[in-house]
Design brief:
It comes from Euphydryas editha (Edith's checkerspot). This is Reverse transcriptase domain-containing protein. InterPro entries: DNA/RNA_pol_sf, RT_dom. One of its GO terms (biological process) is DNA biosynthetic process. The protein is of the alpha+beta class. Helices cover 47% and strands 13% of the residues. The protein contains 18 helices and 14 strands. Strands 7-8-1-10 form a four-stranded antiparallel β-sheet, with helices on one face. A two-stranded antiparallel sheet has the order 2-9. A two-stranded antiparallel sheet has the order 3-6. Strand 11 and strand 12 form a beta hairpin. The longest helix is centred in the middle third of the chain and has 24 residues. The chain is globular, with a radius of gyration of 24 Å.
Length: 415
């Protein structure tokens, strides 16, 4: 079934969940790029972050079967899926007393490979209810809408109309939108004063909030990332303490395993978005604390050479790595100078830097990922993803950059 959907390109391009080659990073980048595009046009961007109550449990079997048939799943394959969903019984067990069984005509089995994919099919037609001038980002049951609007409008009639269609789709498909947990953010540049007017959602007024969590990342209305980094620094301090305690009981190799599985995975998540923020150095502090704990180093010992020796990426190096990897995986989205003109210059193979009105946008991943990728040698840019990953990581590990500028200003040859 998966091969059928992939072969015929049936899954909507705005669905990032449980699809090969796509991740939460891709979903987050897509959402933030839409905000930047609005800012570049001197517009505001309204973000509606929908909360669906028990979405997987609300999938109506009959509706799902109709949609599967619509997408070309027929005959034996459809009968098999119908059998998979049918004749399921639920019971309640309290203190050893079990209730009579009740048939289930809703929900897809969770904990299975098939369950999430069936949900993707179920929600696949939702984006068509959002007009082309509005944007939607889907990650399984996480549904987010971006509306680009004129700055500080007193009313959002166009937005309200689009939201009413989305609410109608949810109702028609038996999905429950939790209005109280659904959030509205008005994304505006720091110099713009926010007008506190809301939008209508299911007959209720939705008032704007200053921040919300999107796929594990705290997004604020100014996209300054301070709130996310503050929370992340606290989590990493706890993780560094855990690494220290583990090291007291085990050897270096075990402590390294704990570091990568616990500390480094938390530190790396979403760094593509927030890694160039003004307060990012508060993340480097607990990282150095964790490294000192693993190798029993005192507070006065410099770690600059140690990072190179132990081949662990610093925060800055991890940011560079995530940026250039993102570009390399999505290189078809980035035009080169030679695509724009036929003049034979030495920079013809470099990626085109987007012309931006705002420095905020240029300094974000929107421009930074291109700036970093253009620093790579041309021969490195031409290799496969697997080889590219190995070459870049080896370079970053042996250099141990303490800042992004360290990487940009490094002119030593690549081996």
């Amino acid at each position: 079934m998966l091969s059928h959907f992939n072969a015929h390109n049936l899954l909507h391009k705005k669905q990032f969940g449980f699809t090969k080659g796509r991740s939460t990073a891709d979903a987050s980048v897509d959402l933030i790029k839409n905000v930047f595009e609005a800012w570049e046009r001197s517009q505001d961007a309204l973000g509606i972050f929908c909360d669906l109550s028990k979405a997987f449990d609300c999938v109506h079997h009959e509706t799902l079967i109709r949609k599967l048939h619509h997408y070309g799943i027929r005959n034996k394959a459809l009968n098999l899926l119908n059998s998979y969903l049918s004749n399921r019984i639920q019971r309640v067990d309290v203190n050893g007393k079990r209730s009579p069984g009740a048939p289930l005509d809703m929900g897809v089995p969770q904990g299975s490979v098939l369950g999430p994919f069936l949900f993707l099919i179920y929600i696949n037609d939702l984006p068509f209810f959002v007009q082309d001038k509005h944007e939607i980002v889907l990650f399984a049951d996480d549904t987010s809408l971006i509306f680009k609007v004129k700055r500080n409008l007193p009313m959002y009639d166009d937005v309200n109309d689009a939201l009413s269609k989305v609410v109608y789709w949810f109702d028609s498909n038996n999905l429950l939108l939790n209005n109280k947990k659904t959030k509205l953010i008005k994304f505006t540049t720091p110099s713009i004063k926010l007008v506190d007017n809301g939008v209508e959602l299911g007959g209720e007024m939705l008032k704007p909030v200053k921040s919300t969590k999107f796929l594990g990342i705290i997004i604020d209305s100014k996209l300054q990332w301070d709130l996310h980094i503050e929370g992340l620094a606290s989590r990493l301090s706890s993780a560094a303490f855990a690494v220290k305690k583990i090291r007291l009981l085990t050897d270096v190799d075990t402590a390294r395993v704990v570091y990568f599985s616990y500390f480094h995975s938390i530190m790396s998540y979403g760094i593509l978005l927030w890694g160039n923020a003004a307060t990012v150095n508060t993340i480097f502090v607990p990282q150095k604390r964790a490294i000192r704990a693993i190798y029993s180093l005192g507070p006065r010992v410099s770690l600059r050479d140690k990072f190179k020796e132990i081949k662990i990426l610093t925060v800055a190096s991890q940011y560079v790595y995530e940026n250039v990897m993102y570009v390399h995986k999505n290189i078809h989205e980035f035009p080169r100078n030679c695509d724009m003109h036929s003049i034979n210059t030495r920079n013809k193979h470099k990626l085109v830097m987007p012309v931006t009105r705002l420095r905020r946008v240029s300094n974000s991943f929107y421009g930074q990922c291109i700036r970093l990728y253009n620093r790579l040698p041309e021969n490195v840019q031409k290799v496969s993803i697997a080889k590219f990953k190995k070459i870049v990581k080896e370079r970053l590990c042996t250099k141990g950059y303490y800042s992004i500028n360290d990487f940009l200003e490094d002119s030593t040859p690549w081996e």
